[in-house]
């Protein structure tokens, strides 16, 4: 491939350049500061197993894949992630722990306690009713007599219902799930960023769209676009459809001011290659995938660039 042919990642670099040059600079919730725009869109083909992994830096796609599988279990405690060596959610419970106790525990010790101590994990490892809880167990309430209501033992499983809906009503315009449970947002460690996923069947292919209300373009995006592609591929496989394309739509899309090195480095690099995501087994349901089922081939990215995460 020559440099003059468009590469799927050009869209990303173009948006990065635009935000870095023209984004509105402000102090955000984290105090780090961002340059930001409202509204952006990108689309990527999933045909022939294509997957929109960034190539201008190495993306640890297995971390993102483990996170996606964790969401699908309905779990909201970081313990299972930490056990698998996934550290991307640790900073939020750790921050809550430090603020509550005044103890300046380091991250490794905190993670060791989360894994080794049941009570500690239960008390400090939970993120509140975030993604997984809403995706597979959205709370519902049932009448308990005398005008009273109680929380039903089992909530709505949006993912199971979605699989069924894609299979039975593929022409539907209601093929979606969302993590944005207005009533429960205040209890979440972080309100969902990748908040609404919508799907469409066209020509025997499944297309997936994500609305992400808030996007850390330097760090979170690489994971979010992989996650969108992965869930679209899994749903397609479960519904006997071919993968079509994914559409990503961002609300507040921003670059953190302390990501200057990453931004400059990525903008100076040229995207190359066409990685593919293989799913090597057809599990009996959307909830039975394992990390070993996924494989990325033909991925030869440029070197990883680390950048601090704003908490
Ligand atoms: N500021 C911010 N950005 C995010 O992307 C983000 C949040 N907060 N809060 C919640 C989750 C956590 N996510 C994260 C957190 C950290 C990394 C991160 O540090 N990624 C590094 C290394 C990953 C690793 O070593 O495993 C990377 O280079 O991708 C990525 C996503 C995505 N979300
Ligand atoms: O999957 C994710 C999760 C989080 N982010 C980013 C987007 C923002 O930078 C922060 C969240 O802060 P808010 O103040 O709640 O918007 O995390 C992401 O990009 N992807």
Automatic annotation (TrEMBL):
HAMAP family: Thymidy_synth_bact. It is an enzyme of class 2 (transferase). GO terms for biological process: methylation. This is Thymidylate synthase. The keyword Cytoplasm applies. It catalyses: dUMP + (6R)-5,10-methylene-5,6,7,8-tetrahydrofolate = 7,8-dihydrofolate + dTMP. Pfam families: Thymidylat_synt. Residues 11-311 form the Thymidylate synthase/dCMP hydroxymethylase domain. It comes from Sphingobium rhizovicinum. InterPro entries: Thymidate_synth/dCMP_Mease (IPR045097), Thymidate_synth/dCMP_Mease_dom (IPR023451), Thymidate_synth/dCMP_Mease_sf (IPR036926), Thymidylate_synthase (IPR000398), Thymidylate_synthase_AS (IPR020940).
